[in-house]
Every structure is written in structure tokens, then in C-alpha cells.
Amino acid sequence: MFKISRQHKSSDLLLLLRVNAVHSWRRLLSVRKQSRLLSGIIGVFVGGYLVLAFGLFYHGMKFVAKFPGLGAVLTERLLYTLFAFLFALLLLSNLVIAYTNLFRNRETAFLLPLPVSTQTIFRWKFIESVMLASWAFLFLIAPLLVAFGLVREVPWHFYPLTALLIGLFIILPGVFGSALAIGIGRHLDRRSFQIVLLLLALALLAFVAFWWKTNPVDDDLLDKRTLEALDRLLAKTRFTMFPFLPSYWLSSAVLQWAEGIASGAVFFAAVLLSHTLFFGSLAFTRFGHWFYDTASAVQSRAGGGLKLDFIRAGKNSRTVGFLERGFERIPLLPPDIRALAVKDVRMFWRDTTQWGQSVMFFGLLGAYIINLRNFTHQLTSPFWIHAVAFLNLGACAFNLASVTTRFVFPQFSLEGRRLWIVGLSPMGLAQVVKTKYWLASAASLAVTLALVTLSCYLLKMPWGDVAFFGAVIAVMTFALNGLAVGLGVLYPNVKETNPNKIVSGFGGTLCFVMSSIYIIASLTLLVAGGGGFHSYVGMAFICIVGFVVLSFIVGWLPMKWGLRHLKDFEA
Question: Which of 32, 218, 246, 434 is least crowded, fewest Cβ atoms below 10 Å from its Cβ?
Fold first, then answer.
């Protein structure tokens, strides 16, 4: 009986894998048939990224390797630090995606009442979550490891072994992220748990902002004692050498295999394999029951996330919420637009996975910007001050592109099959889309403008330069939101309720590709024009005007085409 049950579970899992693989392949073929031009643009962008990233990694590692005695140390520490931070990011990504896939997914709700074991459902959702969370990680490190192998002149078997080790490595954050998602989903409605979770997040932010400071190094120490200065500069990365971190096992195995130390590489590979087998088998055999209990608890709640619906009795026995009172204070805001904005904000806040990712995106960038004050005294040249300011602008812009692609692009699709109801309302679909655009732009502008202004202030830049960078990020904010909203209307997926899958489709990929191209082109124009800071006023003026025109086209054209496309929905 047990053998038959196990065979039945395996056949169910294989059936789910096969059906979803066929469905994904058909979606890929349909994307190619939709527009060969847009598919070609995405292909060129992906290929260009791989080539450009490989070139940067290869020349950077080759440059570092030229330093006798220091090149190997720096390269090894960079690999340890990179894999440690990527493990942390993979853990957060798996946590968010697993929570959505397990408890906020229409397919999961469809499978639970069927004669399919909960363990099989969890296994499929676990595999799907790991794949969704890890593909970007694999895409990022592939050119890095190829460049590392070419610089170190490793044998051919280094590459398949490294691919196998990375495949084992990505399973561990998937298991831990799924376990955290189940635990958070089970206890999220408890007020004490919410308070503890918020305090932990604040404590972690304070730890990153105030404890992890750079150690200033004197010029005399740099001239006389290079090794001691290097050790002080890398002091805060020593935690990546902790022997019980999975990233340490992976990095050690890769480095020792590249150096020809087969025994050490095999040892660390065996450590990674044993932990992956243990925790993977634990997830595949035990998490299904806990998942079912947590899913029952989540579905039995009236709403998810932290409560923002503070209400009080108003006149004529009406109840007025906290958000309603806030939006009522905004002048010249019609009641229908105010009601839609309140609905979108409340839905966003109730979905813990969405605002949690937003905090993660901008929290890491904010922690970095706050720590700028620890080394600004070492930036004495105006060139390096402006270089750091432009790098901060680029980092903030790419963060904004990730947020707009992840959250703003799927907003129209998330209305789902209720779009016809919205279309019958007096305000119409066009006004709904415009309201979503202005709400997203205002919310993201408040964060990005604050971060860029703070970074310029910490760099002790003149107020004229601060105003310039603030105006640039404001223009980029409106352009990126217009691009995301417009493409979200042009390429909707109203049948899908999972934002991760909506973003992973053709439209979401195109949105991020176009956002990245726009940011790179804008930074190129601004840097070529000197940012308005050098004496060539004519060149600076032409580049700034070009940036404004490019931003207008990127933000206005998709919105115009999207609003024109709405007529098909309303018809």
C-alpha cells in the first residue's frame, strides 16, 4: 500500500511538471509569434548583457590579478562576499515568492480540493518557487564564473563541476525560504508576531546602518603597510569566511578546484551535497503537512498583512477610514479618483509580499547611502564626488526600474476579470489607468527623491548640484512609471493572479529591458554633457535637452498607446 501511494505521488508530481513545462513552452512560442521585433530586441539585450558582463568581469579580474600577492587575496574575498550576499538575497527572494506561490496563488487553491496529496502540491510549488527565484542569480553569475575560469586558466572540468555545485547551492535558500514563508503565513495574523517582525526589521536596518561602517585608513599606512591596510579595509567582510555558511562551502569548493586542490574541493562539495540532501529530503517529506495547516489558516482569515483600516464613526453613522481622511485633505481630488486610490493603497498594504519587497529594494539602497558619510572625507576631488553621485543616481534608477516592473506593471492585469465592471463605471478605464499612474509616480517619487537628495547631501555637494540630481531622478521617475503602466496595458495577463508570473511574461521582460536601456542611455547623455558642471555649456545643454526629450518619449508614448489600446477592452 505504501509503495502504491508513493508511486501515485510521484506520478502526480511528474504530471504537474510535464503539464507546466508544455504550457511554458507554448507560451514561449506564442510570444515569438506575437512580435518578432520585440522578441529580437529582448534577445539582443540578453546577449548584449552576457557579452558586456563577461567583458567587465574578465578585464576587472585580469587587472586585479596583476597585483603580486594581493590579486589572489582580493579575488577570493570578492567571491566569498559575492556568494554570501547572493545567498541572503536568494533567501529573501525565495521567502517572498514561496509565500505568494503557496498561499496567494490560484493554482494552489485549485489543487488543494483535488485528490492530490498536499505533499505533492508543496513539492511542485517548491520547485516552481526555486526556479522563479534563482534564474536571475544564475543569469548574473554565469559570466562572472566564466571570466574567473579564463583568468585562472582552469581545466575544462571546472565548468560542469561549478554548475553542479551551484545547482545544489540554490536548493538550500529555497528550503529555508519556504520554511520561513510557512512560519510567517501561520502566525502573521498575531499582533505580537507582527510587532516582533517589525522590531527585527528595524534592528537589522540599524545594525547595517550604524555598525557596518568603513574603517578609514591613513595615507601613511597606505604607503608603508599595504597588507595591513588591506586587512583593515576588508575587516567587515570577514563574516563571509564563517565555515558554517553555505556560501563558504560553495566558494571554497570553486576556489580550491580552480587551484588544483582536488581533495579540499571534494570535501567542501561533499559538505554542500550532504546538507542539500538532508534539508531537501526534509522539505520533500515533511513540509506538506505544515503547508496544509498554514494554508487553511491563511484562507480562513478576513484579510492578510498588517491592518491599516483604522476607522472611526463619522457623521450620519458612516465610518471613515484612516486612508480616506488622508486623501480627503488633498485639494481638487474628485471622489471617484480618491476612492480608487484608497482601494489601490489598501490592496497594496494588505499584500505583505508586495510592500515587503519594496522595503527590501529601497532599504538596502538606503543603508548604503546612509553609510556614505563614513568615507566622504576621503573624497577630496570634485571628479570623484560627481562620479559617486552619478553612480548613486544609477543605482537608485535601476532600483526604481525593478520596483516599477515588479509592482506597477502588473497593476492593470491584477484587476483581472473585473475589468468589465470597472469599464462600466462612470470614470472609465482610461481614468483608472491615469489614476494608477499618478499614484505610483507620487509614491515612488517620494522615496527616490529623498534617497538621491540624501546621497548628494552626504557627499557635501552644493545645493545647485543637489537640485540638479533631484530634478533628474524626478524626470526618470515619471518616465519609468509611464513606461510600466503603458506596457502593462498593452501586454495584460488578466487570467493570472500571481504578480510574479505576470512580470515573468513577455510584457514584464520587455518593460525591464526597455527601462534598463532608457537608464543607460540617460546616464550616458548626462555624463557626456558633464551633468551641467563643466564650462562647455553648449554641450551640456544639448545633452540635458536630449535627456528630457528621451524621457518624454519613453514615458509618454507607451501611455498613449496603452490608452488607445483600452478601446478594445471597453468595446
Answer: 218
Grid coordinates representing 316 are 450620519
| Residues in CB range of 61: below 8 A, 6 or more apart | 75, 147, 148, 151
Q: What is the pLDDT of residues 244-266, one digit of tens each?
A: 999 999 999 999 998 888 899 99
Location of C-alpha cell 525565495: 94
User: In this structure, how many other beta carbons lie within 10 angstroms of the beta carbon of residue 334?
Assistant: 11
Tracing cell 562576499 back to the chain, one arrives at: 81
DSSP string, 297-361: HHHTSS--SS----EEE-GGG-EEEHHHHHHHTSTT--HHHHHHHHHHHHHHHH-HHHHHHHHHH
Q: Which phi and psi angles does 264 have, rounded to 5°?
A: -65, -40
DSSP secondary structure code for residue 530 in this structure = G
CB neighbours of residue 440 within 10 Å: 25
Distance CA 484, CA 502 (A): 13
CA dist 149 and 205 (Å) reads 36
> DSSP class of residue 57?
H
Task: Please tell me the distance from the alpha carbon of residue 117 to that of residue 112, in angstroms, as a whole number.
Answer: 8
How far from 361 is each of 154, 410, 544, CA to CA, in Å? 36, 18, 28
Cβ neighbours of residue 477 under 8 Å, at least 6 residues apart? 400, 441, 444, 445, 448, 449
* pLDDT tens digits along 44-97: 877 888 888 888 888 888 888 877 667 777 888 888 988 998 898 899 888 888
Taking residues 386-396, report their average pLDDT.
82
**pTM, two decimal places:** 0.73
Contact 448, 396 (CB under 8 A): yes
Instruction: Sort 484 into a burial class: Cβ within 10 Å, 0-12 / 13-18 / 19+.
Output: buried
Look-up: residue for cell 481622511?
A: 325
Letter string b/e over residues 282-302, b meaning 16 or more CB atoms within 10 A of that residue's CB: ebbeebbebbbebbeebeeee
Q: Which H/E stretch holds residue 458?
A: helix 428-458
Q: Which of helix, strand or coil describes residue 105?
A: coil
For 407-425, write each residue's pLDDT tens digit. 888 888 877 666 667 666 7
Q: Which of 313, 320, 314, 321 is nearest to 346 (CA)?
A: 321
Task: Judge contact between 408 and 502, C-beta under 8 A.
Answer: no
Could you tell me the three cell numbers for 467?
Answer: 537640485
For residue 23, count other CB atoms closer than 10 A to its CB. Answer: 10
Cell of 112: 488543494
How far apart are the C-alpha atoms of 132 and 139, rounded to whole Å? 12
- DSSP classification of residue 88: H
Cell of residue 12, nine digits: 502526480
Task: Give me the residue spans of the domains in the chain.
Answer: 35-187+225-299, 309-346, 351-571
The C-alpha cell at 293 is 495547516
Q: Supply 419's cell numbers.
A: 475589468
DSSP, residue by residue, 265-308? HHHHHHHHHHHHHHHHHHHHHHHHHHHHHHHHHHHTSS--SS--
The Cα 104–Cα 288 span in angstroms is 16
Q: Which three cell numbers stand for residue 251?
A: 566558494
Angle, to 10 degrees, between the axis of helix 537-570 and the axis of helix 463-490?
30
